[in-house]
Design goal:
339 residues, alpha+beta, 60s Ribosomal Protein L30, Chain: A, five-stranded mixed sheet, 67% helix
């Protein structure tokens, strides 16, 4: 294969060929053959030059493409390096965060265990309290049923008691009216004697006719004088008409020891107070038809004074005879016994 001749040498070769055109034929033929060979080589070089030109263009294009690709790849590499550095930072950051999370998880697990124990304890306590509340609720329900039954019984009993109470109030009102009526009748019957050693009062559902000693008896005596007999006869006539009244006679003395008069057989103030009470009973029954069963005669001696002072006036008040009139309370007692 011939060496490739640069394009700049071709004119020089043509000039040399022209210069030697006058050489000999042999030399000419030789030169002609050589010239033909050079022309052939020239054409070959032209073709190769064209090929090289085209190849150079192609290489230039590819070079430009490679340059572009290189620039792009360089940029991508730089970006990749930047991204790699960022990724490394992210990895480091995430690794640190991961370690922190692991520690937090460990702490959380430990805390959760304690919290779980606490919650379990609270749950057991709540279950215990719930069971206690349920038991208490059942007890309360049972008690409520019992109390309902008891309430019904009490309501029924209360209604009965209210009925009896209404009856009692009615009876008490009637008894109060009866006592008031009796007191008015006694006051009317003894009109001339009131405030003259005789008083008529109401107390504890009873009528009290209190007679001073000077109205009925002389000092140390149980004999009733005429004025006292007159008052007792008026009272006896009234009591004979009111057959539902119980009559209690009480004799009272002062605290001065009794001194018996000649011929009297009285031992002491007890004896004197009893004799005065029985004397009043006899006078009330002397001219009347009062049933003796209605009477109660008793001596109280000196032990229930009206005035406990040790003065003549106090002793005068204490020497008295009380006639206590009690209306029939049988129906009232029956109601009270039913309670």
């Amino acid at each position: 294969m011939f060496m490739k001749v640069p394009r700049i040498l071709l004119p020089l070769l043509l000039l040399a060929l022209t210069a030697v055109s006058c050489v000999t034929g042999k030399r000419y033929n030789t030169l002609t053959d050589r010239n033909l060979l050079l022309m052939s080589e020239r054409d070959s070089l032209k073709a190769e030059n064209i090929w090289l030109t085209m190849s150079n263009r192609e290489l230039t294009t590819k070079s430009m493409q490679l340059a572009g690709d290189t620039e792009r790849l360089t940029k991508e590499v730089d970006e990749a390096r930047t991204e790699l550095a960022q990724s490394r930072d992210d990895v480091n950051r995430l690794s640190t965060r991961y370690d922190e999370l692991q520690r937090a998880q460990a702490e959380l697990v430990a805390g959760k265990a304690q919290e779980t124990q606490r919650l379990l304890a609270e749950l057991r306590q709540a279950q215990t309290e719930l069971q206690q509340r349920e038991d208490l609720m059942r007890d309360l329900e049972m008690n409520l049923d019992t109390k309902k039954a008891t309430l019904e019984e009490l309501t029924y009993e209360l209604e009965k008691r209210n009925t009896r109470l209404a009856e009692l109030e009615k009876m008490l009102d009637a008894q109060q009216k009866a006592v008031k009526t009796l007191k008015d009748k006694v006051s009317e019957a003894l009109f001339g004697f009131e405030n003259n050693g005789l008083t008529v009062t109401m107390k504890n559902g009873q009528v009290y006719v209190s007679m001073d000693d000077k109205l009925l008896f002389k000092t140390g005596s149980y004999e009733i004088d005429a004025n006292g007999r007159a008052a007792l006869r008026k009272l006896g006539a009234l009591l004979e008409k009111n057959t539902d009244v119980t009559i209690t006679i009480e004799g009272h003395t002062d605290d001065v020891p009794y001194r018996a008069a000649p011929g009297q057989q009285i031992l002491d103030n007890w004896d004197l107070s009893v004799k005065r009470a029985t004397t009043v009973v006899r006078v009330l029954t002397q001219d009347t038809h009062i049933n003796p069963k209605r009477f109660v005669a008793s001596g109280r001696s000196e032990y229930i004074p009206v005035d406990p002072a040790k003065t003549p006036d106090a002793r005068q008040k204490n020497r008295r005879t009380e006639i206590i009139l009690t209306p029939d309370l049988t129906a009232l007692y029956r109601i009270l016994e039913s309670y």
